[in-house]
Amino acid sequence: MHDRAIRSGLPDTATLNPVQERIDLLISRVLRFGVLVAAAIGAIGLLLFFVRGPQPGDPQTLHELLTLQSGTLRTSLHAIAIGVLSGQPDDVMRLGLLVLILTPTARVALTLVLFALERDFVFVVIALVVLVILLLGLAGLVGG
Predict the structure, then answer these.
(1) pLDDT tens digits for 15-40?
(2) What does the CA dihedral 78, 79, 85, 90 come to, rounded to 10 degrees?
């Protein structure tokens, strides 16, 4: 079994304790669930866009939509929440993108927990640095 796992490139779950196995399974489920939820939210937003059609003040053509300046987009969590609650298709699609972006961030956080349980502190530090960079990037404090 151990030989086959190494040859196939799969992690060797035989060496993980039950808690580590549960976290490993949770990580894979979080990734799957996050991508599926993000796709569903995006599809709902797209469906709303087609059903509702362009409203006054919204871009009326594809060209207008694609050439929007970034300053005209609502990207704060508060603005997106208000837009989602009022049924704005673009905000629903932004929520789907946010869920998609947060999915690997959740994976890094869970991986950090797994490394801590394994007492692999070098990888705990590495995962922590990656998580901090991701969170700072999401907050708009690093990156361009």
Answers:
(1) 667 877 888 888 889 999 999 999 99
(2) -140
In a domain, residue 55? The reply is: yes
Specify whether the CB–CB gap between 45 and 98 falls below 8 A: no
C-alpha–C-alpha distance, residues 116 and 132, integer Å: 16
Which residues constitute the domain of residue 50? 2-101
**Do 101 and 113 meet the contact criterion of CB atoms below 8 Å apart?**
no
Return the amino acid letter for 130.
V
Spatial separation of the C-alpha atoms in residues 99 and 93, rounded to whole Å: 10
Q: How far apart are CA 102 and CA 135, in angstroms?
A: 9
Task: State the first-to-last Cα distance of the chain, in angstroms, to the nearest integer.
Answer: 46
How many structural domains does the chain have? 1
pLDDT at 5 over 50: no
In a domain, 10, yes or no: yes
Q: What is the pTM of this model?
A: 0.72
What is the signed CA dihedral for 38, 42, 48, 51, rounded to 10 degrees? -130
